[in-house]
């Protein structure tokens, strides 16, 4: 049995825990999948590289509105695949190679599970190995789920793990689920030439978003895609490549490809965490405290496998930093904060969001005002000929505190950042609107003007 000072299980965000500050230790990393994990290989990065390509294709298709006659010939899908995955696969290989060449690190390739306190069995192609460690970081991520009506059919279906690497664009793609992945990948495949149908059990797409954002997004999607809202799949029949999907209202839909995007579940259930005294919640997420310690002494956890914050890469990255600090400085530990967590949907239109939605603020009984500015009411919105974008900011009436912000439209993921900063430092809305100069006529004027709109109705907008 080999002993290490520190073992990290999972080479996604877990790989970011360890750097040269740990060179005095004997460190091992166990990797079942490619280095870089979901984000690099099948998540954030390929989906955004594909979405950026789709945005460019849309710009060409839409160029007539700017008096630039142009025609989109086609998206060269095999070329896009080579560019995107050629780059990302090389990154994953280089990351693993870098670890293998690090003298104080050991790379185990295989699946780890606990056999006791800080004791792991690693199953590899060559057999199995037992290791122990003084300290362990669990960063085993999550995996896509699929409804039984689909899995029981025995017919093939894609998930985000596989669909982006298809060698051909599907002709008719049915997406089950109307959340993040559906919004982003329907944008990609629609622009690449697929007919899109979305089957979503809720009444709108992206329902956790602010109602006005979810509504605007759904309306925009309805113009391009066939939306089956309030519906579930009850069965799949046919043969691979020629599928018939039945819905709970009896509708039958034809497709060559089915993409299931109904959420993900923690991989904690594959780790035998009970053998190591690691507690999990009712959804199977490993329970962590503010310092990202599990219930087992000497075991930390981060990312999608845990109950610590939303399953987003910037959350996991920050958790990796906090754990690294706490491993190196146990005498002065840091705590993870989830007070201000932004998120973005890289679809068409793009969405940026932070803090409370209007419906959440109402449910909490907060007395708040809403400031809104549409892109079509600012100069750069005219320049873009944009008619649907807006920035909406929620401000507590009495204190002028910004409690939530929502942007829909071009560059929304970037435009949200000044509001993330303002909320992080708890700057009053009036100060954020009036103290800095906002460059004219940039898109950021949508943010500035939404803030000015909100503070008109505040009792106390902040500093005068
Ligand atoms: C399509 C898609 C798009 C996304 N886009 C965004 C985005 O734009 N922005 C954003 O913030 N987030 C995005 N996310 C979410 C983001 O990818 C995840 O939150 C993040 O990657 C989680 O990191 P992690 O380290 O917890 O898990 P992972 O990156 O999944 O890493 C876990 C690693 O552990 C390995 N592993 C699992 N079990 C074991 C085991 N028993 N033994 C050894 N190794 C094991 C896995 O092979 C994997 O490499 C997206 C996700 C998807 C699916
Ligand atoms: N830009 C980003 O940050 C980004 C992008 C993609 C994925 N992600 C991460 O990956 C996670 C998974 O994404 P996702 O899109 O799979 O999940 P999601 O939770 O965003 O959306 C799932 C959707 O599927 C619907 N649904 C569930 N069961 C269904 C059923 N049986 N039939 C029809 N609809 C059903 C839900 O109502 C929901 O709208 C996200 O929650 C997020 O953490 C983030």
From TrEMBL:
Residues 341-450 form the Pyridine nucleotide-disulphide oxidoreductase dimerisation domain. It is an enzyme of class 1 (oxidoreductase). It holds the Pfam family Pyr_redox_dim. GO terms for molecular function: mycothione reductase [NAD(P)H] activity. Its cofactor is FAD. Keywords: Disulfide bond, FAD, Flavoprotein, NADP, Oxidoreductase, Redox-active center. Its EC number is 1.8.1.15. It comes from the Bacteria. Residues 5-320 form the FAD/NAD(P)-binding domain. Belongs to the class-I pyridine nucleotide-disulfide oxidoreductase family. This is Mycothione reductase. It comes from Streptomyces longisporoflavus.
């Amino acid at each position: 049995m080999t002993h290490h000072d520190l073992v990290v299980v999972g080479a996604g965000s877990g790989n970011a825990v360890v750097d040269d500050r740990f060179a005095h230790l004997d460190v091992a990393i166990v990797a079942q999948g490619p280095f870089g994990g979901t984000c690099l290989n099948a998540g954030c990065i390929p989906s955004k590289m594909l979405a950026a390509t789709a945005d460019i294709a849309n710009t060409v298709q839409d160029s007539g509105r700017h008096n630039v006659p142009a025609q989109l010939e086609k998206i060269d899908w095999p070329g896009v695949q080579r560019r995107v995955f050629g780059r990302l696969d090389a990154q994953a290989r280089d990351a693993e190679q870098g670890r293998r060449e690090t003298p104080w690190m050991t790379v185990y390739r295989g699946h780890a599970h606990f056999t006791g306190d800080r004791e792991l069995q690693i199953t590899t192609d060559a057999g199995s190995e037992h290791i122990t460690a003084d300290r362990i970081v669990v960063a085993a991520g999550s995996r896509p789920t699929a409804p039984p009506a689909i899995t029981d059919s025995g017919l093939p279906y894609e998930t985000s793990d596989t669909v982006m690497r298809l060698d051909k664009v599907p002709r008719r793609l049915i997406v089950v689920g109307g959340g993040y992945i559906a919004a982003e990948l329907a944008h990609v495949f629609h622009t690449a030439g697929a007919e899109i149908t979305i089957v979503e059990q809720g009444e709108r797409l992206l329902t956790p978003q602010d109602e006005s954002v979810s509504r605007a997004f759904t309306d925009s999607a309805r113009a391009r895609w066939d939306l089956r809202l309030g519906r579930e799949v009850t069965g799949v029949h046919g043969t691979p490549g020629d599928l018939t999907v039945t819905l709970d209202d009896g509708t039958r839909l034809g497709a060559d490809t089915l993409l299931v995007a109904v959420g993900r579940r923690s991989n904690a259930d594959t780790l035998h965490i009970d053998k190591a005294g690691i507690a999990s919640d009712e959804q199977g997420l490993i329970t962590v405290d503010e310092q990202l310690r599990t219930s087992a002494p000497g075991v930390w956890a981060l990312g999608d496998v845990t109950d610590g914050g939303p399953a987003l890469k910037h959350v996991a990255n920050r958790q990796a930093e906090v754990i690294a600090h706490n491993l190196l400085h146990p005498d002065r530990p840091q705590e993870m904060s989830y007070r201000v967590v932004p998120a973005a949907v890289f679809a068409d239109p793009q969405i940026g969001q932070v803090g409370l939605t209007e419906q959440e603020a109402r449910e909490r009984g907060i007395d708040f005002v809403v400031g809104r500015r549409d892109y079509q009411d600012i100069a750069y919105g005219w320049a873009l000929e944009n008619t649907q974008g807006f920035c909406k900011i929620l401000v507590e009436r009495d204190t002028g505190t910004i409690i939530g912000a929502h942007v829909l439209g071009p560059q929304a993921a970037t435009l949200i950042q000044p509001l993330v900063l303002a909320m992080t430092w708890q700057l009053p809305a009036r100060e954020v609107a009036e103290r800095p100069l906002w460059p004219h006529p940039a898109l950021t004027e949508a943010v500035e003007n939404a803030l000015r709109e909100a503070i008109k109705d505040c009792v106390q907008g902040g500093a005068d």
